[in-house]
């Protein structure tokens, strides 16, 4: 994260916590033990991503007084907690759905490309003295990456129980991105 403006103490504390969350997420997503199940690998990679979303939302709630941002963060926390529960509930069943070595290799190559772009975008999100603007920019990059990861896994033979969760995740994240872009536009007009 690069900044060219002088940042307030509140913004610095917010960004320091964001950086900690981001580094933890990147480590946990990329240090899993790869198995012969794309479904299992995806679940193990997505849980840290969802946990980071919750922590990012909790971080902005410590500082924001913007009601729209507060409501969005609360909604994100609720939905991400439900998604983690759903993924964990399926993990023991989906891990038995095996793929060929070639499929796992193809999946992991795509995962790495998508994750690297998402990590880069999240690390280089624009910085302002508004924690609201920072949060929205960071979360847009996050949600776009999560959608690309979900679309990637849908290209492969996966546990059928996982498909409706992925479709719901894609739809929810797409709707939230639209809302965040509108909120960001409104904040930019201030």
Question: Which keywords apply here?
Answer:
DUF305_CopM-like; 6 helices; Ferritin; DUF305 domain-containing protein; mainly alpha; 190 residues
What can be said about this structure in brief?
Pfam families: DUF305. The protein has 190 residues and is an all-alpha fold. The protein has six helices and no strands.
Helix content: over 70%
Class based on secondary structure composition and strand pairing: mainly alpha
How many individual helices?
6
N-C termini distance: 24 Å
Strand content: under 5%
Tally of extended strands? Answer: 0
Sheet having the most strands = none
CATH topology: Ferritin
Low-pLDDT runs: none
Instruction: Give the number of domains.
Output: 1
Domain DUF305: 37-90, 130-184
Protein name: DUF305 domain-containing protein
Pfam families: DUF305
Please provide a written account of the structure.
The protein is mostly helical and 190 residues long. It has a single domain, classed as Ferritin, CATH 1.20.1260. It is built from six helices and no strands. It has helices spanning 9-30, 38-61, 67-94, 101-123, 131-153, 162-188.
């Amino acid at each position: 994260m690069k900044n060219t403006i002088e940042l307030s103490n509140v913004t610095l504390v917010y960004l320091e916590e964001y950086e900690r969350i981001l580094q933890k997420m990147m480590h946990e997503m990329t240090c899993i033990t790869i198995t012969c199940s794309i479904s299992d690998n995806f679940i193990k990679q997505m849980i840290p991503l969802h946990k980071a979303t919750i922590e990012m939302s909790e971080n902005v709630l410590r500082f924001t007084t913007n009601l729209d941002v507060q409501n969005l963060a609360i909604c994100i926390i609720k939905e991400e907690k439900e998604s983690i529960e759903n993924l964990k509930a399926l993990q023991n069943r989906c891990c038995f759905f095996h793929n060929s070595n070639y499929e796992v290799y193809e999946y992991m190559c795509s995962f790495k490309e998508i994750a690297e772009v998402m990590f880069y975008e999240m690390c280089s999100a624009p910085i302002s003295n508004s924690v609201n603007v920072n949060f929205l920019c960071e979360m847009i990059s996050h949600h776009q990456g999560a959608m690309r990861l979900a679309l990637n896994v849908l290209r492969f033979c996966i546990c059928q129980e996982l498909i409706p969760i992925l479709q719901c995740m894609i739809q929810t994240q797409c709707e939230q991105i639209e809302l965040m872009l509108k909120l960001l536009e409104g904040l930019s007009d201030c």
